[in-house]
Automatic annotation (TrEMBL):
Entry keywords, A to Z: Amino-acid biosynthesis, Aminotransferase, Cytoplasm, Pyridoxal phosphate, Pyridoxine biosynthesis, Serine biosynthesis, Transferase
Reactions accelerated catalytically: 4-(phosphooxy)-L-threonine + 2-oxoglutarate = (R)-3-hydroxy-2-oxo-4-phosphooxybutanoate + L-glutamate; O-phospho-L-serine + 2-oxoglutarate = 3-phosphooxypyruvate + L-glutamate
PROSITE patterns noted in UniProt: AA_TRANSFER_CLASS_5 (PS00595)
Taxonomic source organism: Niabella yanshanensis
Full protein name: Phosphoserine aminotransferase
Cofactor(s), by name: pyridoxal 5'-phosphate
Residues the record lists as binding pyridoxal 5'-phosphate: 76-77, 102, 152, 172, 195, 237-238
Residues annotated to bind L-glutamate: 42
Gene: serC
Cofactor descriptive note: Binds 1 pyridoxal phosphate per subunit.
Assembly: Homodimer.
Highest taxon of the lineage: Bacteria
Length: 360
């Protein structure tokens, strides 16, 4: 059996060492005599898996003590509702920046619960850039300010975080959490679906400043109330146990790689390898310019749909898979999350060079 170079946008490649470790513990975790999937979430073994995943995340992201870490279900998409239900509790207003399909969904959901002020958008050019933000347009009264830190579909990211003053910044970090250093204290709340950079689908990580929980709207379902999950240590109901276990393994792997600073450096090398080639190529082009370019998701096109299709077909046959771009952008997209090695990106670029020569 041959493993492929998997450039999927999500669920995405996991480190092979993690999969092997999970395989070795599949039938019997430690001395428990059972798989992690088969154990009570209240058992000592599972409690220590949960505690260690949380402490690894705190260590890697340098999460300050006044922030809580939650492992929830429902995906990042549930957070689109959970954030306003819990945080839109004073002025009932929030500022949003519209940088893509995920921001749009977040905005649509928040509008059910209060006044959404879309202070900037890049929809005019298929979200191919990050709009300039003018702090004079920020609402000082807003209950929070929401951004999507990395736009998975369009391949853009905020090179700098907006300074929102006393208004809590909320970040959908689904596709770039742990890819680079973020100062958690700059955020009121961070959320991320696990299936891009953290582990398998089915777990959503939430990092919330303590004081922001506890004022949810009256009709908030219990399962959507951060306070309930905080008070119960992510165990209000059965948490996604196997997913949390895998996240723990991914975080241990990341520590072995040298932590966030080391992976950030590798991620920049990987992205530069691909962007440098795209900028020189006479066949392939990046769809995003300058400082807004994502380090995680890199869309590219040839400008000819037939050649795009031929490229995807031949790349797949050569073991470079899930390179088809999102239908709203077309062409190709290489998602190069933490688990993708520099060597994998170099091999892809070598293949693209050969394809370019053969198809000039
Ligand atoms: C994938 C993704 C989502 C959706 O995540 P689900 O877990 O499927 O709900 C939301 N935001 C961003 C930035 C994403 O990349």
């Amino acid at each position: 059996m041959q493993r492929v170079y998997n450039f999927s946008a999500g669920p995405s490649a996991l480190p092979e060492e993690v999969l092997k470790k999970a395989q070795s513990e599949m039938l019997c975790y430690g001395t428990s005599g059972m798989s992690v999937m088969e154990m009570s979430h209240r058992s000592k073994d599972f409690m220590s898996i949960l505690d260690s995943a949380e402490s690894s995340l705190r260590e890697l992201m340098q999460v300050p003590d006044n922030y809580k870490v939650l492992f929830l279900q429902g995906g990042a998409s549930s957070q689109f509702a959970m954030v306003p239900l819990n945080l839109m509790n004073k002025s009932k207003k929030a500022d949003y920046v519209n940088t893509g399909a995920w921001s749009k969904k977040a905005i649509k959901e928040a509008k059910r619960y209060g006044t959404v002020n879309v202070i900037a958008s890049s929809e005019d050019k298929t979200f191919s850039y990050i709009p300039e933000l003018d702090p004079a347009t920020f609402d000082k009264d807003a209950d929070y300010f929401h951004i999507t830190t990395n736009n998975t579909i369009y391949g853009t990211r905020f090179a700098e975080l907006p300074d929102t003053g006393n208004v809590p910044l909320v970040g959908d970090m689904s596709s770039d959490i742990l890819s680079k250093h973020y100062d958690v204290s700059k955020f009121g709340l961070i959320y991320a679906g696990a299936q891009k950079n953290l582990g398998p689908a089915g777990v959503t990580v939430v990092i919330i400043r303590e004081d922001l929980a506890g004022n949810a709207m009256d009709f908030t379902p219990t399962m959507f109330n951060y306070k309930e999950h905080i008070e119960n240590g992510s165990m209000y109901n059965t948490p996604p146990t196997f997913g949390i276990y895998l996240i723990g393994l991914v975080l241990n792997w990341l520590k072995e790689q040298g932590g966030v600073a080391a992976i950030e450096k590798t991620n920049i090398d990987k992205a530069n390898t691909l962007y440098n080639f795209l900028d020189e190529s006479s066949l392939f082009k990046s769809t995003v310019a300058g400082k807004d370019r994502s380090v995680m998701n890199i869309p590219f096109v040839t400008g000819n749909e037939e050649i795009d299709a031929k490229f995807i077909k031949e790349a797949t046959a050569a073991g470079f898979v899930q390179l088809k771009g999102h239908r709203s952008v077309g062409g190709m997209r290489a998602s190069i999350y933490n688990a993708i090695s520099l060597e994998g990106v170099q091999k892809l670029v070598d293949f693209m060079k050969q394809f370019e020569v053969a198809n000039k």
